[in-house]
Amino acid sequence: MLRAHGAEAVREAERPLLEAGEPLMLRAAAALAERAVHHLRSAPFAPQVLVLAGAGSNGGDGLHAAAILRREHSLAADAITAAPRRHEEGAAALEAAGGTLHPLASLDEERLAHLLCGADLVIDSILGIGGRPEVPAELLPLLEAVRDSGVPVLAADLPSFVDATTGQAAPEALPARETVTFGAVKAGLLLPGGAELAGTVHLVDLGLEEHLPARAAVERLEDADVRALLPRPGRDSTKYRRGVVALAVGSEQYPGAAVLAVSGAARTGAGMVRCLAPQAVLDLVLRARPETVGHPVGPGRAGGRVLDDETLARTHAVVIGPGLPGDDPRVRRGVALLAGQMDVPAEAPRRGVLDAGALGAIDPGTRLCPDVVLTPHRGEAERLARRLDIDPDLPAPELARALAAATGATVLLKGAITLVAPGDGGPLRSQDDATPQLATAGTGDVLAGVLGALLAAGLPGPDAAALAALLHGRAGRLASRDGLHPLVALDVADSLPEAIGTILADAQDLNRGAR
């Protein structure tokens, strides 16, 4: 699992090493230079590197890296000093290696364009862990010129003008092809804003691990975590042991939502999928997924429960909301079931998903548990926040945490970066596995089904939510050929087995290679 920390935690972890005289800057610079060489492998003969250097330690990292590129790799590396002061030790090292430092104040537009025209790589080391999401006016022309030049950017520690803790970024901040981060992944690199600018994140080990807090600020699942968490059937498995999920989904207006959510659950590996829907919707579901167990709802059935006690006791998770209007009786009953407000057997599920129409049934008195996952997009999250007297304009990480604290549920806030705020107050999760092609009708219904299947298999709410986001994103990438092709929601469900199999097969390949 990728574990990220806030700025203050990283500073505290660095302190004992710096006091002991550890040359952290030189080690960071050497790693930065190594990644620069890696990026220049396909560059033309005699590639050139241009460092944008601030006055602090981040600028020192960049200047020392430029010196190493000259001394050890015979590469042309020079710098633009972006502040009135400069990091003197780093500047002296670069000058001793034969490099040139150009004060930004001395460069007119033509000279700046000339320097960038000759560069094959820009190293952004203006600001690091102390950066804030505001760009001084005097630096705006520099950033604009770099962006317009199209020269690839390698960020030192994190892109400049990104908050290392929150991820909030200045609109003018430079997007990097890769970020070489030192000692620990910074939380801001995994959160909206910073994550979009960071590119690929490459962690350099500086020996901070034993000094970092045991609890990370932000976590992200990786493939190894999928292999550890994903339930897989054994020789003695039965459909009930694999998990039974019941979905109250689909209506006259949105019948397709039922097909999509049921397909998401089935293709993720649920042992049995029940669908609670009007008969016309069930007919549609059964034509697409004949293995589904149908439970009709509608006129003449509104007065009683759809599932009897025995069936309810053999159901392990529920999904409420996809394709349902807010006044549908299934919404009220589903929320009451998950909130423990119904007279049902003790074995009845208290874990499940509240999505779409079901989110509107949550009020300030609704208390849920962390194994219940709310799955709003930003607009739904803002509407829920207003009902719960939470500021709807909070940044996404804070909004997700606030909704989780107010309801007790785990909150999966959908977006380009999907955030998971555990209902038990655990570390925020951040998943960046998706493609923009997933921005199409019905993909959220598939996600709800995926999540329901994982909850039915027994995964804790936060793990199930993060894993569902990862699998859903990977399936979307497969279905769209890494974002090249448009997709429809059912393509995502149909790609889930391949997405899962690819991750598991990679583990088998690794095991064979280790023999």
From TrEMBL:
InterPro entries, per database record: Carbohydrate_kinase_pred_CS (IPR017953), CARKD (IPR000631), Nnr (IPR030677), Ribokinase-like (IPR029056), YjeF_N_dom (IPR004443), YjeF_N_dom_sf (IPR036652)
An annotated GO BP: nicotinamide nucleotide metabolic process
Boundaries of every YjeF N-terminal domain copy: 10-214
Catalytic activity line of the entry: (6R)-NADPHX = (6S)-NADPHX; (6R)-NADHX = (6S)-NADHX; (6S)-NADHX + ADP = AMP + phosphate + NADH + H(+); (6S)-NADPHX + ADP = AMP + phosphate + NADPH + H(+)
Matching SUPFAM superfamilies: Ribokinase-like (SSF53613), YjeF N-terminal domain-like (SSF64153)
One Pfam family cited in the UniProt record for this chain: Carb_kinase
PANTHER family given in the database record: ATP-DEPENDENT (S)-NAD(P)H-HYDRATE DEHYDRATASE, ATP-DEPENDENT (S)-NAD(P)H-HYDRATE DEHYDRATASE FAMILY MEMBER
Cofactor: K(+); Mg(2+)
Complex and partners: Homotetramer.
Keywords per UniProt: ATP-binding, Isomerase, Lyase, Metal-binding, Multifunctional enzyme, NAD, NADP, Nucleotide-binding, Potassium
HAMAP family, alphabetized: NADHX_dehydratase (MF_01965), NADHX_epimerase (MF_01966)
Domain YjeF C-terminal: start-end pairs: 222-503
Binding site for K(+): 58, 124, 160
One MF term in the entry's GO annotations: NAD(P)HX epimerase activity
Family: In the N-terminal section; belongs to the NnrE/AIBP family.
Binding site for AMP: 414-418, 444
Cofactor detail note: Binds 1 potassium ion per subunit.
UniProt-recorded name of the protein: Bifunctional NAD(P)H-hydrate repair enzyme
Superkingdom assignment: Bacteria
Biological role stated in the UniProt entry: Catalyzes the epimerization of the S- and R-forms of NAD(P)HX, a damaged form of NAD(P)H that is a result of enzymatic or heat-dependent hydration. This is a prerequisite for the S-specific NAD(P)H-hydrate dehydratase to allow the repair of both epimers of NAD(P)HX.
Positions contributing to (6S)-NADPHX binding: 57-61, 128-134, 157, 257, 323, 377, 445
EC number: 4.2.1.136, 5.1.99.6
